[in-house]
Amino acid sequence: MIHSLRDEALLKKIAYKKTFSSKSAREKELQKVLSLCYDNAYLLAAYDSVITDSLSATAYLDFGKPYKWAALRKGNVDEGVLSEIGFREKMYAGKPLKYKDVGASANASFAIMRTTVIRLPP
Question: Looking at the whole model, is its pTM more than 0.85?
Answer without folding.
Answer: no
